[in-house]
C-alpha cells in the first residue's frame, strides 16, 4: 500500500539528523560495553553522519549567503562581480581628465587619507627642494632639543646667505621660537643656530638623511639644514618625497599649528626687543581652508611650495617644484582636483 502523505524537505532533514544522532548514541553504547565487533560498523555510520551533516550545513550556508549562486554566475558571465565585493573608495574621478598646464617642472596632488595620487607631473624627478628642507630641520630639532632650551646666536649664523629674520650675534632664543621663525618666516639664520649648537652641522645633516630613510624618502639627499642649493645637485628631493616629509611633520600637533600660523612675535631671552615674523606662504590669505605648509626659493630650485588644503570632506597635499609661479600653479592644481574628483 502506497502512502499519499507528503513529507517536507525540512522534516526529512530533521529525521535524517535524528537518525544520525541515534546511531551515534548506539555507537557510544557499543564502545563503552567494549564489544569490539561493532567498532568498524559504528565508525562507518559516524563517518556517514559527519559527511551528511557537513553537506547539509554547507547547503544551508550557501542558501543564506548566495555563495553557490555567485559561483554559478561567475562561470556563466566572467564580468559578474558579487554585490558584496563592490566597495567605493573615495575620492573617485568624475570623468576623463583633460591636461593641465602649469609652470612647475614637477608636481603632485595627493589625498592624505588614502594616499591616492590625484594629479602628477614628473613626480619622481630629483630637484633642489630649497627651504622646504627646513621641515626636516624642524624634525631633527625636536629629536635633540627640548622646546624650552635656550640657544645663542653665533656670528656665522648671522651671515648665512638665506632668508633671515635678522638675529643678532649673542642674542639667545628658545628652541621653540627658533623653530617657529624657521617654519613661518623661512629664517635661515634660525635654522643655522638650531643645526650648530648641541652638535655640529655635519652630524645634524647626517641625522636629517637618516630620518629621510626612515620616512621612506628614498630619492632624497640633504647637504645642509637651511635649504641652500647643494654642489652638483647634492641636495635634492622629489615631489613625492616632500609629500611624505610634510605629511609626517604635520602629524605633530605643534608643528601642524606652526606651519599654518600667519605671523608671530619672538623675543630674545631676557630682553624686551622683539621680532615680528610673517608667513611666506601667501595661500594662507588667498585660498580658504589652507593649512600651510612650507615655501622655498633658490636660484637653482626656482619656486617650491608644499601646500595642504583641508575642509569637511577632503585633505589634499599639493607639492610643486621648479615652478615660475608656485602659488598660481598650486591654485590651478587645487581647482582641477576639486573639479574632477568627488569625495562623497
Protein architecture, described:
With 344 residues, the protein is of the alpha+beta class. It has helices spanning 9-32, 39-65, 67-76, 134-144, 155-158, 175-184, 188-195, 201-214, 239-249, 253-258, 283-286, 326-340, and strands at residues 92-93, 106-111, 116-121, 150-152, 172-174, 263-266, 275-278, 290-298, 302-310, 315-323, 341-342. The chain has 2 domains: 9-83; 92-342, 3-Layer(aba) Sandwich (Beta-lactamase), CATH 3.40.710. It is 42% helix and 17% strand. A hairpin with a 4-residue loop joins strand 2 (106-111) and strand 3. Helix 4 packs across helix 8. The longest helix has 27 residues, at 39-65.
* Largest sheet, spatial ordering of strands: 3-2-10-9-8
CATH class of the largest domain equals Alpha Beta
Indicate the multimeric state. single chain
Compute the number of structural domains: 2
| Portion in beta strands | 15-25%
The helix count comes to: 12
- Within CATH, the superfamily of the largest domain carries the name DD-peptidase/beta-lactamase superfamily
Residue share in helices? 40-55%
Amino acid at each position: 500500500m502506497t502512502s499519499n502523505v507528503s513529507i517536507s524537505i525540512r522534516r526529512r532533514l530533521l529525521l535524517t539528523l535524528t537518525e544520525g544522532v541515534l546511531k551515534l548514541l548506539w555507537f557510544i553504547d557499543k564502545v563503552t560495553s567494549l564489544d569490539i565487533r561493532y567498532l568498524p560498523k559504528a565508525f562507518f555510520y559516524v563517518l556517514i553522519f559527519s559527511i551528511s551533516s557537513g553537506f547539509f550545513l554547507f547547503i544551508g550556508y550557501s542558501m543564506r549567503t548566495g555563495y553557490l549562486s555567485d559561483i554559478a554566475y561567475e562561470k556563466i558571465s566572467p564580468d559578474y562581480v558579487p554585490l558584496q565585493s563592490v566597495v567605493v573608495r573615495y575620492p573617485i574621478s568624475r570623468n576623463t581628465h583633460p591636461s593641465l598646464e602649469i609652470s612647475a617642472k614637477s608636481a603632485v596632488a595627493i589625498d592624505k587619507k588614502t594616499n591616492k595620487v590625484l594629479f602628477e607631473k614628473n613626480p619622481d624627478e630629483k630637484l633642489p627642494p630649497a627651504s622646504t628642507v627646513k621641515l626636516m630641520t624642524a624634525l631633527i630639532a625636536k629629536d635633540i632639543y627640548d622646546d624650552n632650551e635656550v640657544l645663542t646666536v653665533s656670528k656665522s649664523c648671522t651671515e648665512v646667505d638665506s632668508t633671515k629674520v635678522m638675529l643678532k650675534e649673542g642674542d639667545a632664543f628658545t628652541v621653540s621660537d627658533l623653530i617657529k621663525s624657521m617654519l613661518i618666516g623661512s629664517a635661515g639664520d634660525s635654522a643655522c643656530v638650531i643645526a650648530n649648537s648641541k652638535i655640529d652641522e655635519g652630524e645634524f645633516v647626517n641625522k636629517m638623511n637618516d630620518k629621510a630613510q626612515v620616512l621612506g624618502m628614498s630619492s632624497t639627499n640633504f647637504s645642509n639644514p637651511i635649504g641652500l642649493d647643494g654642489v652638483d645637485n647634492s641636495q635634492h628631493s622629489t615631489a613625492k618625497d616632500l609629500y611624505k616629509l610634510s605629511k609626517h611633520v604635520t602629524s605633530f600637533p605643534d608643528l601642524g599649528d606652526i606651519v599654518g600660523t600667519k605671523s608671530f612675535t619672538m623675543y630674545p631671552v631676557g630682553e624686551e626687543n622683539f621680532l615680528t615674523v610673517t608667513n611666506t606662504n601667501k595661500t594662507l590669505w588667498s585660498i580658504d581652508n589652507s593649512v600651510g605648509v612650507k615655501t622655498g626659493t633658490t636660484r637653482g630650485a626656482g619656486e617650491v611650495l608644499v601646500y595642504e588644503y583641508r575642509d569637511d570632506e577632503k585633505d589634499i597635499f599639493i607639492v610643486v617644484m621648479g615652478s615660475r609661479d608656485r602659488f598660481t600653479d598650486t591654485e590651478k592644481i587645487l581647482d582641477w582636483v576639486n573639479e574632477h574628483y568627488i569625495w562623497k
